[in-house]
Structures are given as C-alpha cells and as structure tokens.
C-alpha cells in the first residue's frame, strides 16, 4: 500500500471511530447480523423482503421520472411519451417501474397468503397483521393512483370509474366523490390529487407503516408455521383455480376444458400449489436437497 492509500485508510478509521464512540455502530451491526433465525424458515419467508425490495425500486425509478413528468391534463401524456422515446434510458426506467409495481402486488398477495395459512396473525402478532393489512391497502392505492398518471384514455376512464364508486354510499357519497376528484367532474384537480397521493402521501405512509411492521417482527420474532400449510395449499389453490375453466361456460352445455388458456392456468396452478405445499412445510435445507428451490 502506498502512502496515499495508507493516509486514506487512517482517515477513514478515524471517521469510523468518531461515529462509533457516539452511536455504537458495531453493537447495532452485531445485533442485526447475529439475530437468530428459526430452523423452519424457508424461501417463502422472504416474500415480505422481496415486497420491500420492489418498493425501493419503485421509489428510485419513480423519483427519476419526476424530473420529466408533468402533472397537467394537457402535458401528462406527452411527458410520458417523452420519457419513453426521448429521455436517456427513460423507457428502461419506466418499464422497470411498471414491472416492479406488478411484482410488488404479486409478492404482497403471496406474503399475505403465507402469513395467513401459517397463522402468523395470531397472538401476540395481531398488530403486525394490522400494519400489514394497512400496507396492503396502501399498495393497492399505489396501483390506482399510478394507473391514472399517464392520463390516456385508459387512465382517464379508470379514474372516473374508481372515483365514482363512493357515490353509492348513503348521505356522504357525493361529498366523497367531490373530495377525490377535487370538483364535480374528473379534470386537472383530480390529476393533481392523484399525483400528490402517488408521489408524496402514499410513499410517506408506506415508509412509516413498513418501519412499524419490521420493528414488530424484529421484536417478536418469526412465528412457528402451521404444519397443515402444505395440505391447505395443495387443496385450496387447485380447487380455486378449478373454477377458472368454468367461468365462461356457466349455463352452457359444452366442455369447459376446451378453453386452452383456462386449462393452462389450472394445470400450472396445480403444479405450483404442489410445489409450494411440499416446500413450505420443510426447512430450507431439505427443500434444497429435494430440488424444490
């Protein structure tokens, strides 16, 4: 190591010692890295962490797009086109944003499914479940508000339908609709509201509830799974998917499995259910040995 490198290392060590003396960084790092992980934990216990990763990707890519997006009814669509066609790597950033959004919703659903079937919502983890439900609602709200931001025909009519739903509520329905839209009709006020919700309010609330959620998990530890998880998965998922081929054939005297798409969904769902059911009840070492993951 030359003299310059030695001086840099010495300087960084002094900086580290300064922070260590005041914040005890090493103790915090040891506590995080030495946390006991129960032997029953397998790959399905990573779904919450994957959801968090997708959220962080959303924050990064969404922040990048705010440099070019214009939240006005006259310029929103054109600004999205500019991002996709003119901005450097804009098409990639927006595509990653869209795909990670879909992945976040999927991972969140699977995470809820796993927690419910393993009994992770039971005492003393009720509040952890409540914060998780709030996060699920916030995730769905991200989808609704983000869907409208391009302000194309799909986004416009989606907003009009979604904001019109509360009108069916007695007494306060009309007031809720006007609150969501910002006026009696869908327009600039609506887009401004949805943009503010999508880029500021929802991310802030999500960060707060994620901090609460992970703090509770850290404090209470990981719940012991219900060994009936495998049976429930292998029975409930194929049973639910079995209805898919019949949906378009209600009251029709024809073979429901003639629909290739529906039949494919059912077969894939059955295989995945068997895979999840067997793997979810085994420790990760046995799952890897059997080649399940």
TrEMBL record:
Membrane topology: Multi-pass membrane protein
Molecular function, one GO term: oxidoreductase activity
Keywords assigned: Electron transport, Heme, Iron, Membrane, Metal-binding, Photosynthesis, Respiratory chain, Thylakoid, Transmembrane, Transmembrane helix, Transport
KW Heme (keyword) present: yes
All copies of domain Cytochrome b/b6 N-terminal region profile, residue ranges: 15-226
Gene Ontology CC terms: mitochondrial inner membrane; thylakoid membrane
Domain of life of the native organism: Eukaryota
Cofactors demanded by this protein: heme b; heme c
Xref: SUPFAM superfamilies: a domain/subunit of cytochrome bc1 complex (Ubiquinol-cytochrome c reductase) (SSF81648), Transmembrane di-heme cytochromes (SSF81342)
Function: Component of the cytochrome b6-f complex, which mediates electron transfer between photosystem II (PSII) and photosystem I (PSI), cyclic electron flow around PSI, and state transitions.
Family as reported in the entry's similarity comment: Belongs to the cytochrome b family. PetB subfamily.
NCBIfam families (alphabetical): cytb6_f_IV, PRK03735.1
Protein name: Cytochrome b6
